[in-house]
Each structure stands twice: as C-alpha cells, then as structure tokens.
Amino acid sequence: MTQKLILRALSGETLPTPPVWMMRQAGRYLPEYRATRAQAGDFLSLCYNPELAAEVTLQPIRRYGFDAAILFADILLLPQALGRKLWFETGEGPRMETTTTAAELAALRPAEAVHDTLNPVYETLRILSRELPRETTLIGFAGAPWTVATYMIAGRGTKDQGPAHALKAADRATFAALIDKITEATILYLSAQIQAGAEVVKLFDSWAGSLKGQDFTDFAVKPTARIIAALKRRHPGIPVIAFPREAGQGYVGFARATGADCVALDNSVSADWAAEHVQKDGCVQGNLAPHHMVTGGQALVDETRAIVKAFSHGPHIFNLGHGITPEADPENVKRMIDTVRGG
Ligand code: CP3
User: Fold this and answer.
1) Choosing from 29, 48, 151, 251, which is the catalytic residue?
2) Where are the domains of the chain?
3) Looking at ligand 1, which atom is closest to the CA of residue 24?
4) What is the pTM of this model?
5) What is the block-wise mean pLDDT of the chain (343 residues), using blocks of 10 residues?
6) Which of 20, 132, 287, 330 would give a disulfide with 136, using CB separation of 3.0 to 4.6 Å?
7) Residue 101, CB-side half-sphere exposure with 13 Å CA sphere
8) Partners of 137 in the β-ladder
9) CATH assignment of 5-342, given 3.20.20.210, 2.60.40.1180, 3.10.20.30, 1.10.287.110?
10) Phi then psi for 295, rounded to 5 degrees?
C-alpha cells in the first residue's frame, strides 16, 4: 500500500503536490457543523460525545477530501481533566477556574487521572480510525504547556498573556512546576491518543510568540522537546508537528531543538523566508492567512500559488497560518484546495 501523503511529507519527502488540510476545518463556517453542534447542545457536550465528535471531524473530509482529519476536541479539555472547572461564554470564549498558587497546583489531580475524563476523546479516535477513508491521515493534538498554562493562570484568553507573565516573574518556581505538571499530563494524553489511532500528533503553542530569549527556551522549546522525546520513546516513528505560533526568529532551528518532524508556520512569516530558514531542517506546514477564506477572489488563488511555489523544493503540507474563522465562505475553501491541487 502506498503510504499516505501526509506521512510521506512528514518523513521528509518532497511531493509534486503538497497534501492539504486546514486548522479548524470542522467549524462554524460549515452549516453541517452548526447543525451537529446544536444537536449536541453546546461545544463541550460535542467534544465529549464520541459519535457526534467523530461526525463533525468527518464532515470536512466528505465535503472537500482533505488529506488529514484532525480530532475534534479542545486544548482546554486537559486542564479540565486535571480538575479545573471549564465553561464557554457564548460569543466570548473559554473561562476556567484559575490556578496561580502552590496550593492550587498541589490540589490538581495526578497526571495519570486525566484518562478518567478523557476516555470519550480516545473513543472518538477509535471511531475515526475505522471510518476515515484509507488515504486520510488522522491527527491527534494537545496544547503545548505554555499555552495551556496561560489559560489556567488567567482563567480566560488574554491578548498579552499578562497574568502568566506576572506569575512567572513573581513566583518562577510555582510557574515552572505548573509547566511540568501540564507536560507530564500531556505526554500521557497524547500517548493514549496514539494508542487509540492517532497517526500524527500536533502541539498547539498559540501564544509562543509572547515568550522571548531564555523564557522561549525554557517554556516553549524545552517542554515541547520533553514531550516529543517521551512520545518517540513510547511510540517509535510517530511524527509530531509543532506549532510555535508567531515565534518569528524562534522558528529557526525549532525542529532541531525539539525533535519535531514538522514546524507549522503562522502567516506573519513570508513563505520565501521560511523556505530558506526553516524548511532547510525538514517539513513545514502552512501558511495562508485565514482572511483569504473570507475574501476569496484572485488574491486567494495568487497567494495560494505563491506559497505552494515557495515551498516546492522541500517537504510541505499546505495549511492556513491559523484556524479558519466562522465568517469564511465554504466556496473559498474549495477554491483553495483546487488551486493547491493544480486547478
Ligand atoms: O482544528 C480543529 O478543528 C480541531 C479542533 C480544535 C478546536 N480547538 C475546536 C474548537 C483545536 C485543535 C483547537 C485548539 C485550540 N483551542 C487552541 C489552539 C489553536 C488556536 O486556535 O490558537 C486554543 C487556544 C483553544 C481554546 C479555545 N477553544 C478558544 C480560545 C476558543 C474560542 C474561540 C472560538 O473560535 O470560538 C475555543 C472554542 C473552539 N474550539 C471552537 C472550535 C471548533 C469553536 C466552538 C464553537 O463551536 O462555538
């Protein structure tokens, strides 16, 4: 059997046409997603309902034939499994009980206990490994420790990750211990996802761009490297995609420093620059700006072609630079895929 295209790119092969998938490809821009979410009741109930979570994961595969399906879940399910309350405010985003003191950290559930509540996620993966077309790669994921910590410390999303930086400055020992705790739990969580059928895992470090210098090394590079080393010991050959979003110069050497098989690029870096400085170390993924999925037109086609061309001399997986937004037009997604595949 010929290997799946995404796995070939991740093993370093330069393909004539890059495989393609999209962050948040199961999402509110799709009417069928909105219908299933309404059936589930709310977003978290959808995440914990294996049949419906598998259904929404499959919807964009049926509609567009993407080369990968990403597990439908959320990075905040892990801190919830560690014992912190999580809820979503309509129109505003996630809210969680904060974790900022040594006592609150000590009160978190042990890392091994995450499986108690995350079993439905593993079941979603088992369903997907049975139901996906044979050419489609199944991707599991987790948040990287720094990004998960920013939500645990602030209790919500923040523009500048201020509360997490403040705790790091005031009590570096507690902050570092929180990062360690998330790191350990993430290893167990991703390992269980792989056992349940994930063929690739991705670490989302959405707020990596706000770490600089030694902090970037200590809290973006090192925890990612530790997770990847542990996963590779337990599951030799499992490819890992790392997404240190808005890392800028930090992208250079990130794959070598962490052991990642692929670095996902946000759209703040130019494809030509990244081809020269990042792709030289291996596979890259990205990096079309999500706004093109809203605005479409010739600019979408031109920019898609320019990215494909810039990365055509090395291993590349086509993707957006961040998640597709609810305002996107499903027709533009089709146009993007047709353009990548040579239309
Ligand atoms: O890519 C995928 O489709 C896989 C599923 C997935 C979701 N969230 C579903 C989701 C993945 C990989 C994530 C990751 C995630 N979640 C990140 C890292 C990536 C990034 O976007 O930076 C973060 C920071 C979160 C936390 C989170 N979840 C926020 C801040 C929000 C609110 C913002 C929003 O878009 O509404 C969510 C909700 C969320 N996660 C939705 C989806 C489809 C929207 C929920 C809905 O249907 O209302």
Assistant:
1) 151
2) 5-342
3) 3
4) 0.97
5) 90 98 98 98 97 98 98 98 96 96 97 97 98 98 98 97 98 97 98 98 98 98 98 97 98 98 98 98 97 98 98 98 98 98 83
6) 132
7) 4
8) 68
9) 3.20.20.210
10) -90, -30
